[in-house]
UniProtKB/TrEMBL annotation:
<dbReference type="Pfam" id="PF00534">
    <property type="entry name" value="Glycos_transf_1"/>
</dbReference>
<dbReference type="Pfam" id="PF12038">
    <property type="entry name" value="QTMAN_N"/>
</dbReference>
<dbReference type="InterPro" id="IPR022701">
    <property type="entry name" value="QTMAN_N"/>
</dbReference>
<keyword id="KW-0808">Transferase</keyword>
<feature type="domain" description="Glycosyl transferase family 1">
    <location>
        <begin position="195"/>
        <end position="327"/>
    </location>
</feature>
<dbReference type="InterPro" id="IPR051862">
    <property type="entry name" value="GT-like_domain_containing_1"/>
</dbReference>
<comment type="similarity">
    <text>Belongs to the glycosyltransferase group 1 family. Glycosyltransferase 4 subfamily.</text>
</comment>
<dbReference type="GO" id="GO:0016438">
    <property type="term" value="F:tRNA-queuosine(34) beta-mannosyltransferase activity"/>
</dbReference>
<dbReference type="InterPro" id="IPR001296">
    <property type="entry name" value="Glyco_trans_1"/>
</dbReference>
<keyword id="KW-0328">Glycosyltransferase</keyword>
<feature type="domain" description="tRNA-queuosine alpha-mannosyltransferase N-terminal">
    <location>
        <begin position="3"/>
        <end position="178"/>
    </location>
</feature>
<protein>
    <recommendedName>
        <fullName>tRNA-queuosine alpha-mannosyltransferase</fullName>
        <ecNumber>2.4.1.110</ecNumber>
    </recommendedName>
</protein>
Amino acid sequence: MNKILALNPFHGGSHRAFLNGWMKRSWHQFSVNTLSAHHWKWRMRHSAFHFADAFSDEFKTSDKALDYDVLFCTDMLNLAEFRGLAPPAIRNLPAILYFHENQLTYPVQEERERDLHFAYTNFVSAYSAESIWFNSEYHRDEFLTALEEWLPKMPDANSIKATVASLWEKSDVHHPGVDTPPSPPVSRSERNVPLQLLWVSRWEHDKGPEIFFESLRLLQQSGVPFRVSILGESYEQAPTVFEEAKRTFPNEILHWGYLENYAEYQKTLSEADVVLSTARHEFFGIAILEAVAAGCRPLVPRALAYPEVLPEEESFFHHNDPAKIAEFLGSYAANLNANRVRDDVMRERWYQLVSQYGWNQGVPRMDAAVDRVVSEWNQG
């Protein structure tokens, strides 16, 4: 067993779920320091100082180093800055950096809005870490390839190519755990209700809500009966398309808003036929996989991390064309009972597909990876 000092500057959503899920099942011991999930830019700017300052009184001398064996943090921390400010007992720990997102390839509404200082923070943090973990192969490949293209544009960047090569060498993929129901999903074929659709993503522009609701508008326009549950986390400044959709689909909306109660959330998933994603950004897709495990047919972009985590069949995928999405859903609804019977046969297979991302599979791999980092560090 190793003692892990975990720093989570944005302790909410998938960041919190990942750390809590790992701690609950790990053979390691965790000491966790967090900041609430607000003002992400400020978190990236000041969390290194905040955490280092918090440790300054506790660790006056290096003889406290044995209290921890390894440091774990996320992409929201400037790791290099933290190590420069932290007491020796902390800065001299081997560090594991987990990338939930990155600020070099994360989509912005307009490219001129991208603050490359945050992207550079991600780079120097990765350079500072002993081990870099990504939540998917897609995320690892996209970020490191983008670094290879971006960093040489800097003045006097002669050594950059070798630097990025070293990042590839110390990078690994550890999918976040997915909570699956205790048993395969229930049948939909006995239900005499219209087509049931799901939105489970965050209410943000990078999830493509305009494409989602335009697809539903075309479906509604064609006269296809359906119901939709709009779940997922929302924030103060959600895209205006959500309020517009609330007015456009008053008769179709079953549920509106984030469901805090897990049992109610699972029940809503288990009653839906299709979970639809129109994301422009997805480095893994926990919410989509949870819906698939509950028996929903996925309809997701043939892009991002989806082909990696859902490699089963061509009908899972679309190309973010609202007309084509509406056409597929209309065809599905036209033969709804037959499609439900067919999908009932497939639901246990989908359940097993998602089960490979369950915590019981992922946590032993992460725990073993921690052991390797600590062992290699101690061996010098």
